Amino acid sequence: MSVKLETHWVVGFTDGHGCFHVAINRHPKMKIGYQVLPEFAIVLHKDDIQMLHELKAFFGCGVVRPVQGDRLALRVRSRRHLMRRIIPFFAQHKLKTSKGIDFIRFRKVLHMMERREHLSPTGLETIRRIVEGPVRPERSEE
Amino acid sequence: MSVKLETHWVVGFTDGHGCFHVAINRHPKMKIGYQVLPEFAIVLHKDDIQMLHELKAFFGCGVVRPVQGDRLALRVRSRRHLMRRIIPFFAQHKLKTSKGIDFIRFRKVLHMMERREHLSPTGLETIRRIVEGPVRPERSEE
Q1: B6 — contact with chain A (CB < 8 Å)?
Q2: N or C: which end of chain B has fewer CB within 10 A?
Q3: Burial level of A25, CB count in 10 A (0-12/13-18/19+)?
Q4: A17 contacts B16? CB cut-off 8 A
Q5: How close does chain B come to A117, measured CA to CA in Å?
Q6: To probe the interface with A, which of B55, B98, B136, B140 has the most A CB atoms within 10 Å?
Q7: Sign of dihedral through CA atoms A62, A64, A67, A72?
């Protein structure tokens, strides 16, 4: 059973339930010691697995995998897909809630990564400041 | 600053973040001893208070009030508003996730209440069964 997803629905659903996340993880094998991992994710109850696949088809990218409990996530981690699919979509179709601010930060980090700025200590520090921003724990989807 | 809300955006946002809830509370003053309280709610971080007012204007009903922590809710509890605004809107513009099932249950309870069935022990028991349905705790917005 396939549902047609309208652009505005996808924007609304992302405003309500999407997550633009940038992890900065320790990574001893990297020269700078840290790895920057941007991710666009939507986490849903397993009842809604079909919707995750619809969204995957809509964006033309991402991987659907289980997360803790009864939930599954559509995750887009490929930088190429983030740059070519996710960023252009939400740049053209503006988020209406303050999740739009998360998106702007996310895009800023990805653009810095395109310029390889995450590989220098100054760039990494700037990314950390962008990512940390104001704390809003209840935004977290997991 | 006002944002125009498109119908599909509101449906997507509700699929992602809306809540159709029916509380059954003890109420000694009522003959049957219980009160049935259906509620449509959207809970957001206080940064998004403007959006709650936009949604209130969109639906033409509801009350915006603080909930615990840094959050606020738009709540529609008036049965008249639920029957005249919320139910017809989501009956016409179908939710796409399994939140649509929550909505169908919610509507079923409201229709029973219109027929005053919540005031009889049999009706109340039926409502309780409809409301309890399969347990999906991660759906809760609070």
Answers
A1: yes
A2: N
A3: exposed
A4: yes
A5: 31
A6: B98
A7: positive
Please, what's the largest Cα pairwise distance for chain B?
50
Tens of pLDDT, residue by residue over B44-99, are 999 999 999 999 999 999 999 999 899 999 999 999 999 999 999 999 999 999 99
Put simply, whether B9 touches A (Cβ < 8 Å) is: yes
Tokens 């005031």 map to which residue?
B119
Q: Does B66 touch chain A (CB under 8 A)?
A: no
* pLDDT above 70 for A46: yes
d(CA B138, CA A83): 31
Q: Is A141 within 8 Å of chain B by CB?
A: no
Interface check B97 vs A, CB under 8 A: yes
User: Among A3-7, A138-142, B29-33, which stretch is predicted with the lowest mean pLDDT?
Assistant: A138-142
What CA–CA distance (Å, rounded) separates A90 from B17? 19
Which strands form A34-45's sheet, in the order they lie side by side?
A18-26, A34-45, A71-76, A63-66
Minimum CA–CA partner of B97 in chain A: A48
Q: What is the DSSP letter of B33?
A: S
Is the per-residue pLDDT at A44 higher than 70? Answer: yes
**Chain B environment of A141 (Cβ under 8 Å):** none
Q: Which domains does chain B have, with CATH numbers?
A: 7-133 (3.10.28.10)
